[in-house]
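Case 332 in the screening queue. Each case pairs one protein sequence with one candidate compound; here the compound is acetyl coenzyme *A. For every case the pipeline is the same: read the inputs, emit a complex structure as tokens, and attach any notable structural observations.

Predict complex for case 332.
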Amino acid sequence: MLTKEYHAKISGTGMYVPDKILTNYDLEKMVDTSDEWIKSRTGMSERRIASKEQAASDLSYEAAVKAIEAARIKTKEIDMIIVATISPDHPFPSTACILQKKLGLKGFPAFDIAAGCTGWIYAANIAKQYIENGIVSNVLVIGVEILTKLVNWSDRSTCVLFGDGAGATIISRADEKDISRFIDSEISADGTHYDLLIQNAGGSRIPASKESVEGNLHTIYMEGNKIFKHAVKSMYQACEVVLKRNHLDVHSIDWLITHQANMRIINALGKKLNIDEKKVIVNIEKYANTSAATIPIALDEAVRSKKIRHGDLVLMASFGAGLTSGSLLLRM
Ligand code: ACO
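Case 332 output:
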């Protein structure tokens, strides 16, 4: 293993979800579905919906302010911003640059990461490298998504699954004596399956046209049941790698936070890892799948409710469009 010059830690968390709640019963009135189907097949009961005026940077800003306060740093101490999202304000410039302006900052790197639901883990992994190399001290890492503006509201197989929200984390250099620190992280991708979850139009392959809009090519296309099979396997592998590399048994893990895409996937991973289900953090019933935001939102809720405490060993795992996957092992 490489010797690290410095250590990274999570010094503050924050989250923001829009006020509007859309329940499974509301969805029953919109498409041919039922509360029973959604709940039993996914574990979801309701999700938050951004307003017409809200874009990814707006949600990010609200979450960021809370994380900065929790980290007890001044906004101007941030020296890098990474935003994980596949529903940015605009295809370009990056949402990170827009957020930098909203925070009244400039003069340091700000960029987006598009790794689907694994986005926040990818972004945290990158922040970890920059901190460990001693290049930066406080990275604002956001997972944000407004996928309800990208779903096809007449496709019942996808429109019931997603919700909007933002989770923010400040990843800072840890003091030498600090027990809080990132221990390890693994990220990966299998591009052979890139077309299982895709927004087909709006890029250089299929630019926007009358036909692309009429053919619903700007909305989310997903072969959910094929992804399902990869999800458990890839998250399990990502967890196994970091546990083995650090000679840790799963029983030493205090909390497991996985991507919140489907309760059946979360349960299957927990079972495969053989972790006590009381240690698995779940909030899918309230927010559904907020993609890159699920893990930082779940982390913030668990920290603020004092479920996760200083010194706890936390394992995180995710998978998503790409197909990407990754894990993060840290002591809070
Ligand atoms: N209401 C009622 N019936 C439905 C609905 C709905 N909302 N959606 C699908 N169905 C029907 C289907 O039409 C099908 O009917 P049929 O048997 O008559 O053909 C039946 O339910 C079963 O459909 P499946 O797709 O096989 O259902 P499955 O049990 O696989 O659940 C789901 C679907 C929830 C999408 C699941 O496959 C899943 O969670 N997959 C993973 C999704 C995911 O995690 N994506 C990656 C992250 S997202 C990101 O990166 C942005």
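Case 332 observations:
- The longest strand covers residues 164-174.
- The radius of gyration is 19 Å.
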